[in-house]
Amino acid sequence: MSSLWHSITVAPALGVVLGLAPVMLVRQRSEKGKQSGHAPDRPPFVVRVIRVISQCVLQIGCWFITTAGTRITVEGLENLPEKGPLLIAARHYHHLYDGCILLRCIPRRMHIFVALDWIRTRWQRSLMEWACTTLVWPTVLRTERLFLTTDGQEGERIFRIDEVKKYLRNAVKDAMLLLRQGEGLVIFPEAYPNVDPDPNPKDCGAAFLPFRAGFVRLVALAERDKQTRVAIVPTGFCYTPGKRRWQVTLRLGTPLYRQDYEDATALASVIEERVQELSH
């Protein structure tokens, strides 16, 4: 699977950094229990508490971010399955607001497939890896962008080329597990947004980039257990500049299923067409 998706640069760190105090409190109590001889909290429980706290703080942060910078209209919310594996294949217009709007407006817990190759310093890498691990957000590196980021010292790289496969392998495993557990996953198959602090292929004026079909292959891998059936929801964004805030329309299409299409290429093509239609 060669598709590598762009990251939300603030949201994952926000969920963990703002939730750091309560998270550390939970961990500290667990450690005290171990040292005092009392039975410590079961690891699954501690992990669940940490994730719930981070998710709640993340939702609040996304609400503040989107309220300050956007006015949002949501269409097609009734198309979302209330439960079960869900993959949202969305247009990528804004590097920050897209993810924050989805996290705010989707009435389910969502995980975002992100790329970390925009990182320029080692402390950013440590923070983002920790944040994404806590939130259970699969992370990858886009090979074509890997060597464009440095930590300020000429020739020194934040990521090594031999790390690409490891990141991709772990991301696929994490994403498959999320879908098999009935969770929601957001993917931006274009890989790059229109509004981005860093140069990207859309700088040439392209409104849309061709979808990378890796997200469909990911669904196929998750469904190999013969029990998982992933609903793929094409999702469009329409941004209109306002005096102070973006006017944003989020449109959710009807779910599509891999079994209804001949192959991954055909399904990816249909989803790409629908996402473009929903974005106008």
TrEMBL record:
User: Does the record's keyword annotation contain Transcription?
Assistant: no
Organism domain of life: Bacteria
All residue ranges annotated as the Phospholipid/glycerol acyltransferase domain in the record: 71-235
Q: Which InterPro entries match?
A: Plipid/glycerol_acylTrfase
Keywords (A to Z) from UniProt: Acyltransferase, Lipid biosynthesis, Lipid metabolism, Membrane, Phospholipid biosynthesis, Phospholipid metabolism, Transferase, Transmembrane, Transmembrane helix
Which positions, given as ranges, span the membrane?
6-26
Q: Which PANTHER family does the record cross-reference, listed alphabetically?
A: 1-ACYL-SN-GLYCEROL-3-PHOSPHATE ACYLTRANSFERASE
> What's the protein name?
Phospholipid/glycerol acyltransferase domain-containing protein
